[in-house]
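Recap for those who missed Tuesday's class. We walked through two folding examples back to back. For each one, the amino acid string is listed first and its predicted structure tokens come directly after. Nothing is annotated here on purpose, so try labeling regions yourself before you check the end of the notes.
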Amino acid sequence: MITVLKKGTTQAQMEHLIEWLKARNLDVHISHGHDYTILGLIGDTSKVDMELLSSLDIVESVQRVSGPYKQCNRQFHPEDTVISVGNAKIGGGNFCMIAGPCSVETEAQIIEVAQKVKQAGADILRGGAFKPRTSPYDFQGLGAEGIRLLLEAKKATGLPIVTEIMSVQYLDLFADIDIIQVGARNMQNFDLLKELGKTDKPILLKRGLANTLKEFLMSAEYIMSEGNQNVILCERGIRTFDTYARNTLDLTAVPVLHELSHLPVIVDPSHATGKVHLVPPMAMAAVACGADGVMVEVHNDPIHALCDGAQSLKPEQFAVLAEKMRTVRKAVTQ
């Protein structure tokens, strides 16, 4: 249920109403707009007398929210959420480029890539320290050492870091990481999501390879219900009947998620396609359809990469793509 307060409502009046609502075992989420304030009521709202609430002098309107997700619902929070990380802003008309290798391999590798993607205009450095792999015999990442090397790259370039967490047991290692990524395979690891909800770090949540958008938003709700409102949604392709590409990139998810939710939405064309020649056109398509950012895999020596070399751009290729994305972004926002 949402309650829209009238313009001119004082802080004291709002606090008195919130106290009254909390006395009825409801959590209250406050969203301030330019001309209004919305109170999102979470809990058993079936016992709330809508007529009584509507009759209050400071209340403009009251309505029930039909969707099962509440805090990420745009009805609760009409204004776009903007997440700030270092000098980068994600959402609310800002566009963010995230780039880096699938996995951290050596200090020289990650620092070289970080320097080159920054020169090309990247705002955030990505890199895997823990790698979920289909085969137990494939490279699984450097773990804690990979985290250390990412932080060295941050020192060398100033770029904020995003890297994936695999389990709650590793959470302490992420104390200095700027954005914690939840991979597609962990999208419905609800214990992990709840623990991340207790942190104050931005969480980049990837859509599961066989999950609906409703399920995707419900996973975001798990994080937000624990108090962490800084969630970034990432479309990274879903599994369909076609086998040419690694996955099928669902770009309709971008405008749909923007319609349903106030959270930023970015796109990962690298994992979506699995083929380096498909990454640039899909990245530009993501920009064209309104994505708040694009996350691209970049490796200085893709042929010898220990993970996902076939979908990784070389730094010079990323530089060309970055310029094209800026051109597309300018065209669609004019």
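Example two. Treat it independently of the first, because the proteins are unrelated.
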Amino acid sequence: MSAENKKIVIKDLTKSFKNTPVFSSFSANISGNTAIMGVSGKGKTTLVRIITGLDTDFEGSVDFDFSPEFSVVFQQDRLFDGFSALENVTAAMGKGRFDKGAREKAKAILSSLLISPEDQLKRVRDFSGGMRRRVALARALAASGNVLVLDEPYKGLDEKTRAHCAAFVKEYASDRLILLVTHDRAEAELMGIENFISV
């Protein structure tokens, strides 16, 4: 099923934190690749946590017309700091670091995200913020799943690197439904996303 044919229906979503409402009877239809936009603190990350099933404390419903399998780039990089970039990516595939097929796939993705072969063997604890972000992105791309959730995936990247990575993600994940959380419409445009939800 192509991304355009995957649909998510959110109906009457109500969610509060300590009696502070985040959503009140919020409804939306997601059909095809979609950017979830809004200023900081308005509930973008909360919405994708609900969609992915990481937050179940809400009222309303989230329904899919397909069986979703999620791979996610969180706001936090969530890397194994003692592992190399290559080991981080193979771990996301559920493969050991000596699995030849997994290593080759991981190398290709990391190289496409501008992580050099030399840096791929270094521990990510020594990486810059932008390099760590690209490893987190590589992990999500390497993992199985038919829905790719990207929560501000390009933060910390300069304009040229962001454009390069966005173009690669668009091509590599062309068979997945992409949910992009961003406050920057230009990021959605870089990925060819034309559907928007405001929160």
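Answers for example two:
The mean pLDDT is 93.
Residues 129-142 form the longest helix (14 residues).
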